[in-house]
Design goal:
The complex is a heterodimer of chains A (280) and B (315). Chain A is built from eleven helices and no strands. Chain A has a domain of 181 residues: Orthogonal Bundle (MetI-like fold), CATH 1.10.3720. With 280 residues, chain A is an all-alpha fold. Helices cover 77% and strands 0% of the residues of chain A. Chain B has a two-stranded antiparallel sheet with strand order 1-2. In chain B, a hairpin with an 8-residue loop joins strand 1 and strand 2. In chain B, helix 9 packs across helix 10. The longest helix of chain B is centred in the first third of the chain and has 37 residues. Chain B is globular. Chain B starts with a helix and ends with a helix. Classes of the chains: A mainly alpha (280), B mainly alpha (315). At the A-B interface, helix 1, helix 3, helix 4, helix 5 and helix 6 of A face helix 1, helix 3, helix 4, helix 5 and helix 6 of B.
Chain lengths: 280, 315
């Protein structure tokens, strides 16, 4: 018993150290956003300032790349959610070698480095363009290629989520609906899709975040446009100012508020569920 | 397929097939084929494409073996490279370093997160686990580039680590931390650690606690319980985490660019150079293809080693 207590104590300590390791770098980065020093740092504390936030909000390039990021993310959601859902339904009705082969092909982009996806997407559309002798913008680097490249692996995340949800689907419901004279589209809209909505919703959220976060695919396909990650990257390389810290702090704050909101909602639902299961 | 037709009818089945085909053909397979094909062609001015000089060869791959120089092997924790008695092409050296340090990152990420995964799954009060996860996942929501940037600030010449150490009187002059590969490894571990924690936690969590207690009741010391009961059960999670971390680390562009010095390059940086500084997309493709082969080999080695299937890894 004594031994177990001691080992638990060790585990608790390690957990705290680990949490500090995960969070302190973010504190350092966020804190530097308020320091009136040209180089982002917290230790020689020069003085409190909000000028990095002001500079950030006045930066037109930041707003432009912010807008681009949102556009690309929406496009990725619009492409990968239908594709992922369709692919999951399709693969779920298959078996044997065809299924394993298709599954392997669908998962492969997730296990491929982003740089490879980016370069192959860029090359493919370029070669199609020059092969057809067309000089349209569709065939040269740009944000539309970033969206297509990102969708090629983000669709797999949606597919995996929907496929997992399909395992708990009672197929006899569809049979019953068909026997009762429902049309195919009715079966789809009224029976199958409502069951899949939670997975589709989660898939859309993941697709959106993955797209916003993406750097590797975007870097190779973006052409002359910037997304937020590329903007931060070029800022860090060209000359660091604490405006990046200000941006980081805003993102962290949004994250934490969102996480707390999610957690309180989850707890409230849990309590409500408990109240239903065991009426007091 | 017949099953699908019977349930959803022709139009919907056709729609599913078209969407899946668009994804797999237009977004995945054809681009990879083009990448492969282009990697064997020479880099030519537009007017000469398709001309007599446009023939297949291995030249783009052989480019990696040019520019031999002293084989400077960086070892983990070293501040200076080891000069080997042989010469090796620079890009081969970069490739070897990328494999070496991505593997090291993967192993260290597992060693650091396994106790946490075990703690969260089996020791911590289940009531606290959601809050702990919430805190742990904050860095995950903050994008990759900002996580790397945080370490850039911490390790900077005028950063808090140097000032702190000088303030404590440990060192007299600031140390240049971002030299060699140490800062890259630090950054890679921090940035990709959680991709190891989550699958390993899920795997450990699915183990019946009774099995651990049974092992203990039968007199198994703690290390044997882990070695014979928990780790074998967690294998799919470990495989999944390892593949993800290795792939992300080897394919990372951000972390090495931000945290490395000029003497410690990453393979992705070389690819980027070919693509956008030399504008030689063909050699760039060849290098990208090599990176892809490396990751494929790693995935199959892990699958063989851990005896898991692809569907266990992709969860």
């Amino acid at each position: 018993m004594n031994n177990a207590n001691r080992s638990n104590w060790l585990f608790h300590t390690y957990m705290i150290v680990f949490l500090a390791y995960m969070l302190l770098p973010l504190v350092v980065m966020g804190g530097a956003a308020f320091n009136d020093s040209r180089f982002p740092s917290i230790y020689p504390w020069v003085g409190f300032t909000d000028r990095w936030f002001v500079e950030l909000f006045q930066d037109g390039r930041m707003w432009l790349s912010f807008r681009n990021t949102i556009f690309v993310a929406i496009a990725v959601v619009a492409i990968s959610v239908p594709i992922g859902t369709a692919a999951a339904i399709l693969i779920n009705s298959l078996g044997g070698t065809t299924r394993s082969l298709l599954y392997g092909l669908m998962v492969a982009p997730v296990l491929t480095p982003g740089a490879v996806i980016g370069i192959s997407t860029l090359l493919f559309w370029n070669k199609i363009g020059s092969g057809l002798g067309l000089n349209w913008w569709v065939f040269s680097a740009g944000l539309h290629l970033s969206a297509l490249g990102q969708a090629s692996f983000i669709s797999a995340f949606v597919m995996l989520l929907v496929l997992a949800r399909l395992q708990s689907f009672d197929r006899t419901l569809e049979e019953a609906a068909l026997d009762l004279g429902a049309s195919y589209t009715q079966v789809m809209r009224r029976i199958l899709l409502p069951h899949l909505y939670p997975a589709i919703g989660a898939g859309a959220a993941i697709a959106f975040f993955q797209s916003v976060e993406n750097f590797n695919v975007t870097l190779f396909t973006k052409g002359t446009y910037d997304t937020l990650t590329v903007y931060v990257f070029s800022k860090v390389r060209s000359g660091i100012t604490p405006t990046i810290n200000a941006l980081a702090l805003i993102l962290i704050a949004v994250t934490i508020v969102g996480a707390i909101w999610y957690e309180t909602r989850r707890r409230r639902n849990e309590r409500r569920l408990a109240a239903i299961v065991e009426p007091a | 397929m017949n099953e699908l037709l019977r349930r959803y009818g022709m139009p919907l089945t056709a729609l599913f097939s078209v969407l899946t085909a668009f994804w797999l053909l237009i977004l995945v397979i054809l681009p990879y084929i083009y990448l492969f094909e282009e990697s064997f062609r020479p880099y030519l001015p537009v007017t000469e494409v398709g001309g007599p000089n446009d023939t297949y060869s291995l030249n783009n791959y052989l480019a990696a073996f040019k520019q031999p120089s002293d084989w400077k092997l960086w070892l983990p924790l070293a501040w200076q490279p080891l000069i080997m008695p042989v010469q090796a092409p620079i890009h081969v050296q970069v490739f070897v370093h990328t494999i070496l340090f991505s593997s090291l990152t993967t192993v260290l990420a597992f060693v650091l997160t396994y106790p946490i995964a075990y703690y969260l799954a089996k020791i911590a009060n289940p009531k606290n686990v959601p809050v702990l996860f919430l805190l742990l996942l904050v860095p995950m929501w903050v994008s990759e580039i900002l996580r790397a940037f945080a370490w850039f600030i911490i390790l900077a010449l005028k950063g808090p680590v140097n000032y702190g150490l000088i303030g404590l009187g440990v060192i007299a002059d600031p140390i240049r931390w971002m030299t060699g590969y140490n800062s890259v490894i630090l950054g890679l571990i921090y940035v990709y650690l959680l991709f190891m924690l989550l699958p390993v936690y899920n795997a450990v969590q699915s183990l019946d606690t009774n099995q651990i207690e049974a092992a203990e009741d039968l007199g198994s010391p703690w290390w044997r319980t882990h070695w014979r009961v928990i780790l074998p059960h967690a294998k799919p999670g470990i495989a999944s985490g390892s593949v993800t971390v290795f792939m992300l680390a080897a394919g990372s562009i951000l972390v090495p660019t931000l945290l490395a010095s000029t003497n410690s390059r990453w393979f992705t940086e070389v690819i980027y150079q070919w693509m956008f500084e030399s504008q030689d997309w063909n050699t760039g493709s060849a290098y990208a293809f090599m990176l892809m082969i490396l990751c494929t080999v790693f995935v199959s080695v892990v699958m063989r080693l851990f005896k898991v299937k692809l569907s266990d890894i992709a969860k």
